[in-house]
Each structure stands twice: as structure tokens, then as C-alpha cells.
Design a protein that fits this description.
Elements lengths: L2 E5 L2 E4 L4 E8 L7 E7 L5 E7 L6 E3 L7 E6 L4 E6 L8 E8 L17 E2 L3 E6 L1
Parallel strand pairs: 2-11
Antiparallel strand pairs: 1-3, 3-8, 4-5, 4-9, 5-6, 7-8, 9-10, 9-11
Length: 128
């Protein structure tokens, strides 16, 4: 069955870095775009970043562009999110997601409803 398992969350201070990882199984990894979303308490689950099946293209939310980097290793079925210069407003549960139905060579999904599978999430807390 399909599984997405995130890891790497934790408590850090403002300005620190953190690297999240997601291991996927149960589907043909390269045929899926992979994305990261986040959900802060009392807020909607928001798009953070996405990456195409073979590592390109990539797409970022404005709020994280230049600070976060998404990457994938198709040999290991993993997708990572490197987060630098973290700020308190980055505090959230971070979710890994996989998209196939809405993924084409010309379109990288960036909306929650366009993703087919989800992980359970990993907590990231940034203190000021």
C-alpha cells in the first residue's frame, strides 16, 4: 500500500536550519510530483514547495522562496526539504504529498486537492 513517512522535524531557534525527509513506497515514484505543505495551528494547510518526477521543475511558495530547497532522490524514493533561515512563522506541521492525477510535464501541482497521497506530518517549531 502507499506510504509516505516524514522525518526530521524538531525544535530550533530562529535563523537555524532543518532538513525534512520523506520516504515513499507503494507507487511508481518517478511518475509522481512530490510536494511539501504545512499547517499552522488554526490555519489551512498551505503549499510550500513541489518538484517534478525527475527533479525538475521546482516551485516554491513566495514565503519560502530563497530559504527552502526541495530535492528528490529517485534511487531511494525520497524527497527532502532543506529549510534555512527559519523564522517563528515557519512553525507548523509539515506534510509530504504525492501527485499524479494533476501532474503533467506542463503543470506542477500546487494545491492541496491536486495531491493524491499524504504523509502523517512532522512538527517543526521555531522559537524566537
Amino acid at each position: 500500500q502507499v506510504q509516505l513517512v516524514e522525518s526530521g522535524g524538531g525544535l530550533v531557534q530562529a535563523g537555524d536550519s532543518l532538513r525534512l525527509s520523506c520516504v515513499a513506497s507503494g507507487f511508481t515514484f518517478t511518475t509522481y510530483a512530490m510536494g511539501w505543505f504545512r499547517q499552522a495551528p488554526g490555519k489551512e494547510r498551505d503549499f510550500v514547495a513541489a518538484i517534478g518526477g525527475f527533479g525538475a521543475p521546482t516551485y516554491y511558495a513566495v514565503s519560502v522562496k530563497g530559504r527552502f530547497t526541495i530535492s528528490r532522490d529517485n534511487a531511494k524514493n525520497t524527497v527532502d526539504l532543506q529549510m534555512d533561515s527559519l523564522q517563528p512563522e515557519d512553525t507548523a506541521v509539515y506534510y509530504c504529498a504525492a501527485a499524479n492525477r494533476h501532474y503533467t510535464v506542463n503543470y506542477l501541482p500546487a494545491y492541496r486537492d491536486e495531491y493524491d497521497y499524504w504523509g502523517q506530518g512532522t512538527q517543526v517549531t521555531v522559537s524566537s
